[in-house]
Specification:
- By secondary structure, this protein is of the alpha/beta class.
- The protein folds into 2 domains: about 210 residues, Glycogen Phosphorylase B (Rossmann fold), CATH 3.40.50; about 170 residues, Glycogen Phosphorylase B (Rossmann fold, 3-Layer(aba) Sandwich), CATH 3.40.50.2000.
- The chain contains 16 helices and 15 strands.
- The strands form 2 sheets. An 8-stranded mixed sheet has the order 3-4-2-1-5-6-7-8, sandwiched between helices.
- The chain is globular and about 65 Å long.
- The two termini are about 20 Å apart.
């Protein structure tokens, strides 16, 4: 099949959702599908290249607001080439409306993957109620478009989609896989990072890894670190933190300084590879996931695959994906995080059988979905679609 992915970002951009789509695209290419990715062009990247069997078309856009400009700047490419594809797959709220109407124009089946529906939880994330109301309306309008199929990344996300009124008969759950590098069992790392940060080998080290996004709760974890440090004097928090959104990253840095925690809260740049990330995580005594909301929970699933104890919030999909040694705490509460980490330091965990998230199962589920929707086109009549295809080939 010829499948077009329309994504805000692609490699070398670092992010959980971006990595998931890289694995999906490359996995489908290895199964002999013709895969094209249209995305924004990042500094230092080629405008056209074949990367691990995937043709990547990068569109030059203004650096500020790049993902918002991408639908406009890629319009000519879609007009010219969209009819050549059997299916188009997108996930970005910024791109969806444009891609949706282009797909309907050409009669091309469109699949939308919903990573998360925040809904009325925006009220807790936005200080401006007007902004919260606007975000909720935009989110609802985009999710309720008449896609050929809507994929939720968890049962929690599917429930949220149903609440806002999507057609449940056109929706299903396909879990993302966990990269195999995380599924090799746990052992303490070589302690090189501890040595660099001057963290004693017998100190209790708890770790967060990911972005400083508004839903990620990193600010709450930093606040909790002050009390944790008082109650466990030899404890250290390591934040393996991305620098985007940059304003939130700077806010975290400033708060660490204000709380005088720079000796026990360590900011570490994002790992350059998944292998490097695993080696860093293996130095941890436990991993903390302080999310306020979570559509799937990549960090939770990955930490559990490593068999490292996890303290996570009971929100969204986290209870679905968490397993092994873990503790679930109330989301959005500093004291709950403190108590969870204190229990972790005592070795007082809950335990459930390990859960597996295999990429081969994800790939097969998407393959079957593409085949199904490509045989039930809900857009323009096939006669027009074939005519547009012929025009596209001539241009």
């Amino acid at each position: 099949m010829r499948i077009l992915f329309f994504l805000s970002y692609y490699t070398p951009y670092i992010g959980g959702a971006e990595n998931a789509f890289i694995r999906l695209a490359e996995g489908l290419a290895r199964r002999n599908h013709e895969i094209t990715v249209v995305t924004s062009r990042l500094p230092g990247t080629a405008s056209n290249e074949v990367f691990n069997g995937v043709y990547v078309k990068r569109i030059s856009v203004p650096k500020w607001g790049d993902r918002y400009f991408l639908p406009l700047f890629s319009l000519w490419y879609m007009l010219r080439y969209l009819p050549r594809f059997d299916c188009v797959h997108t996930a970005s709220h910024c791109l969806t409306v444009t891609v949706y109407w282009m797909a309907k124009l050409y009669g091309c089946p469109i699949i939308f993957t919903s990573h998360e529906i925040i809904g009325n939880r925006w009220d807790n994330l936005c200080t401006n109620k007007g902004v919260s109301w606007l975000y909720q309306r935009i989110e609802k309008c985009i999710a309720r478009l008449n896609y050929d199929h809507c994929v939720a990344v968890s049962q929690a996300t599917l429930r949220d989609l149903v609440k806002i009124g999507i057609d449940e008969s056109k929706a299903s759950v396909i879990y993302w896989g966990v990269d195999e590098v995380f599924a090799k069992g746990s052992h303490m790392g070589d302690m090189l990072l501890r040595q660099q940060l001057q963290i004693p080998s017998d100190s209790f080290l708890y770790v967060y890894f990911g972005r400083p996004g508004v839903t990620k709760g990193v600010d709450l974890l930093v606040e909790a670190a002050r009390e944790i440090n008082q109650r466990i004097p030899n404890s250290h928090l390591m934040l393996i933190l991305g620098k985007e959104p940059h304003n939130l990253y700077l806010a975290i840095c400033q708060r660490i300084k204000e709380l005088n925690l720079r000796a026990t809260v360590h900011l570490v740049p994002s790992a350059s590879s998944r292998v490097e990330l695993v080696e860093m995580l293996r130095e941890a005594n436990c991993i903390v996931v302080p999310s306020v909301t979570e559509g799937f929970g990549f960090t939770t699933a990955e930490a559990c695959a490593l068999d490292i104890p996890v303290v996570a919030t009971r929100t969204g999909a986290i209870p679905e994906v968490i397993s092994g040694r873990h503790l679930l705490v109330k989301p959005g509460h500093i004291h709950a995080l403190v108590e969870g980490v204190l229990r972790a330091a005592r070795g007082d965990y809950d335990y459930t059988s390990p859960k597996q998230f295999h990429w081969q199962m994800t790939l097969t589920a998407y393959e079957q979905l593409y085949e199904r929707v490509s045989h039930s086109i809900s857009g323009r009549p096939l006669v027009l679609r074939e005519s547009l295809k012929r025009i596209s080939r001539l241009s």
